[in-house]
Fold each of these.
Amino acid sequence: MKSEYINAFYKATIDVFHLMLDVEIKRGDLSLVEGMISSKDANVVLGVTGDLKGSILFGLPKEMALKMIKIMCSMEMDEIDSFVSSALGEMANIIGGNALTILNSNNYVCDIVPPQIFIGEYKSYSMANKKALLLPILTSIGNFDIHIFLEEEN
């Protein structure tokens, strides 16, 4: 997987977290994940089509998701309900759109598919025996994972 894919999503995440949450982020150690990916409490999957194809999985713990909503919307929430899910989906959509804009400047023409949101740790995701890159994101309000599975369309 090319570093420009990873850097595009990392840069977009930095920008969105700074703008929407006023939260600085750091990158944890990158690693490869094969096969099944364990889920978090809140999971958002974005499909990518075009010159690159694949998916991006954002996995967040419940506490972090609720802190994000408190910062963004000034609302105290106890559970990940439809409002919280929608807000997380929109944030992932903005990160994805910004990342694809960065990739477009590197001559990749791509689109994102509307996000799918899965709540609950009981799920795991299959990458169909392919490898995904795990990009851990560290913040002052919690840590979350971005799994990047992108391939160039032949």
Amino acid sequence: MILNILFIIAGVFLVLWGADRMTDGAVSIAQRLNIPQIVIGLTIVAMGTSMPEFCVSLVSALKGTPDLAVGNVVGSNIFNVLLIVGVAALVAPMIISRSTVKKDIPWAVFSAIILSAMCLDHDISRIDALILTIGIIAFMIYTLRAAKKGEVEQEEGEKKDYKPIVAVGLVLLGMACLIFGSNLFVDAATKVAQELHVSEGVIGLTIVAGGTSLPELATSVVAARKGQSAIAIGNVIGSNVFNTLMIVGVTGLICPMQIEGITPIDLAVMTISIALLWFFSYTKFTVERWEGALLTLIFTGYMAWLISNVI
């Protein structure tokens, strides 16, 4: 048990570190090809932050543990909205940009509703996956067009200036770490679930989702303290859209999934949480401290409910 827990920790570290290295290398290559910074931010960087969840979910599905794959996505979305936004708003009220409220959050609400509806029959077919994949393509086209019109608030990211051979090496090293770390993580998490007699869905909703969401939590709390919450919360919500549409979509196209351990309550918490955040931010474009406290309280209650069903 202890060894498997150490493997889980090591797997999380490798996946997160690998995603960073791969993203750095890809950004450097894109910059050398004179791809505009805003396009890099909206595509490579955005997808890079979702790579840990994607690799873990894909490996889980391929290894015959689809509940772990979908639980990772549902759990990550819940962590993002309830815990990350909630705790960050407790630290300091979070200002949300108009583009996030008007564009990103509605997409996140829509994608959560679609995924929940697809999961009700306990099956993600290739047709379902194709619909989700078309959704992420449409989201990217819409976002890029909005960016060209100046409707998306962006800040210049840090320049990654590596020699071409170093950049390619970083991409390959990052991919290797993602693949190895994901396999290590999934195998260890599955064994822990078996030893504790806990469903793979619960492991995905808690340990796996929490591990892959830690970087966003740290980043958002620091950003809130520095008064830079608009970008941070935009990345969190954008991550939800990528998680739902890209990860489940691409994973389902490669490997259709039969889902048993994800309950309607899990799906309802995911959908209601993002809808609640939209309600909080719609009029004043701010998440106040008391609203952050409510989101955190809902998260605590949900985790308590999951644990109570295990014990």
Amino acid sequence: MSAEKINPYKDSELGKKEQVAQMFDNISEKYDGLNRVISLGIDVKWRKKVVDIVSKNNPKQILDIATGTGDLALMMADLNPNKIVGLDISAGMLEVGKQKIAKANLTDKIEMIVGDSEDMPFNDNTFDAITVSFGVRNFANLNKGLKEIARVLKPTGVLVILETSNPTKFPFKQGYKFYTNFILPIIGKLFSKDKVAYSYLSESANSFPFGEALNNILQKNGFTSTEHKPVTFGVATIYTASK
């Protein structure tokens, strides 16, 4: 089953987009703490790698799609761009992010807006760098979302995606499957009032195309120079691409 067909709430009448927004609204207050627990804190290290890649482009205008509570946007503020826009479909997650940004005195640098990654309110060729961390697998239409990213990225710009992937080597492959299928949903249920959210997150992670497969999808949707680099035994992968 493709990741696009996997929805958080099996019996909901809503489309995937609305369901994903609802799910993240439901878990937004617990999300940061839970994320650190689930990834054993390694996600911070992965984001640092993303920031390093972005820094090479010396970007002035940055867009962080599926920004959530703004972790990556906050880290990229150190690159001293003129503006960072954090876009997310979940108003609940953005509210948490806005509080973190205010606390860091970065409200004038980072703007958080509710929006749909498949239909963005930006002109063509606006951004020097676009990042998506753990967001592309929640796109309702992956091809449409990537084409839209290509549209708003400058010809000289860089796209950096951080996304879950599945380890392919023994014993990491087996260990990861056990962790995502059994441990992850239990942790999620202990922490969160939304019982299905973490089952959805692990299910969508397990079925999302990664490595060469995602590179090919990027190329099909207007990107070149696509590269992918697995991190931490392949439980996540960092992709870079140009237009």
